[in-house]
Amino acid sequence: MKGYQLIGLAVVLAAINAVAYLLPVRWDLTDDKRYSLSEASKQLLRNTDETVHVTLFLDGDLNAGFRRLKKAAEETIEEMAVYAKITHHQSPVTTSLADSLGLTPIIIHEREQNGKTAQTTVYPYMLVRYKGKKAVVQLLRNTRGMSGEENLNASIEQLEFVIMEALSLLEQKETPRVAFIEGHGETDEAHTYDLMTALSRYFQVDRGQLGNDIHVLDGYKAIIIADPQTPFSDADKYIIDQYIMRGGAVLWALNGVRLSEEVLQQEGFTPVLPLDLGLTEMLFRYGVRVNPALVQDIQCLPVPVNVSTDPAQTNLQPMPWTFAPLLLTSQISPITKNLGQVMSTFVSPIDAVGGEDGIDKRVLLATSTASRVTATPGKVDLSDMNPDTEQFRYQYVPVAVSLEGVFGSTFAHRIAPEGLITDEPVRKQSPRTRQVVIASGSVLSNELQKGQPLPMGYDRYSGMQFSNRDVAVNSVLWLTDAEGLISLREKDIPLRLLNDRRAHDERLNVQLVSTISPVAILALIGLVVMFIRKRKYQKA
């Protein structure tokens, strides 16, 4: 090759390198697209008009799992930097810094090869600062019932979502509003305190009755109807229906039956009757039916029961309470993906209805593989602690669903109820919008202990924490998610684990092969080149 040809080739390569630097082109060749951001994330990043400062606290002597989480976090930040101006750095966590930011350390206990146990303190957090505001991002999910590797893998899957969620909150110019509807015996403020507190991170949370103005709900991104006990009037149904027809979103938490827990505690049993809220036709029109029945499940919470035969002494023992099922979460919905079981009491089954109505219906919560459905009227009896398991033949009974699509109005061929303030005709069809229906008010409520609210999903008898809060908050985020960020929770990265035993037994072989192979290949290439050159010059 002549000199000018070499110079020309060098110039071309330099030009290609310069163009690639100025206009970076990236290809993600992985099956699960783990190195790619969604279009919603890219658009959010492009909309930023100031520098985003990211501080990663996940540092120190990390084990392999947390090193993988740290690397994934760094790669996500690097990918974000393609679409926005981002600075990031590592930072150790001091006691004062942890206290000021509210960082709770994770203590990891690991057994070393010599048999000793090592303890490591890890802060799996990230601090995002933008336009003078800051948000702490928790990188590690810790779902009960999942192994450490599964929790770390779920955390990696959720990295893009939790970071983008924090940035979205920092970029908000106005705080959106949601409202709890009152006036029908709904769960009071004390028993929804934990949910209201959790939602206040994202929304202004209001409570109130509907009144007679059909536009009273305008301006609210979503409304929450939590466990009503008395029927809805036609006026109230009309206001809610027309709110949906204008694109509003609703989270319904409705019981299908009526019973008295006070009578149950005092008498040991209580009758169970259908609960008619006047919403059956309305919900049927939207594509769902809450059945007037009770679900029982072998997979359930224990309750303390006095098993003492001596009236003067109390001997409380935990006994399974099949009317308090531990509900399974769906892995095909962004609302419930990677979440653990949900605590509930007195749950009703749900049916999807409507057939080919164009509504996308997804099951969010269901019972286990050993369930039964009790029709009403009937009774709940505390003495029924050892039911016949042969009767629990139902599997995966749906008790919560999400609905998305264009809904038809219940009042499409009816006039507006009297007494309402309205000057417009009935809207017969909604734009594309969303609803969530949960067939138990208990899923959204928290208990009180000495007048103080406990966390949602916390069982004070067993001390276990369930995923009620995450399901409720994610439901509202999904209902109000115009940008599509909640869909990032659907990202799926397969968990590929090494065979620990094989890795240990074949460790020396792998080390030898990985060390010697590159040298051997280079030596072989060198010999081949020498052989070719030798033959070439011998002929010459």
Structure characterization notes:
Helices cover about 30% and strands about 25% of the residues. With about 550 residues, it is an alpha+beta fold. The chain contains 13 helices and 27 strands.
Specify the structural class. alpha+beta
Shape: globular
Distance between the termini: 19 Å
Give the number of DSSP strands: 27
How much β-strand is present in the residues? 25-35%
Regions with little confidence, pLDDT below 50 for 5+ residues: none
Helix content: 25-40%
Q: What is the rounded Rg? A: 30 Å
Largest sheet: 10 strands, mixed
DSSP summary: helix tally: 13
Set down the secondary structure blueprint.
Blueprint lengths: L2 H20 L16 H8 L5 E5 L7 H17 L5 E5 L4 H7 L4 E6 L5 E6 L2 E6 L2 E6 L9 H10 L1 H13 L5 E5 L11 H7 L4 E5 L11 E7 L7 H12 L3 E5 L3 E2 L2 H7 L1 E6 L5 H7 L1 E3 L2 E5 L2 E7 L9 E14 L12 E2 L6 E3 L7 E7 L4 E5 L2 E4 L16 E11 L20 E10 L9 E2 L2 E2 L4 E2 L4 E2 L2 H12 L20 H6 L1 H33 L1
Parallel strand pairs: 1-2, 7-8, 7-9, 9-10, 10-23
Antiparallel strand pairs: 1-5, 3-4, 5-6, 11-12, 12-21, 13-18, 14-20, 15-16, 16-17, 16-19, 19-22, 22-23, 24-25, 26-27
Helix pairs in contact: 3-5, 7-11
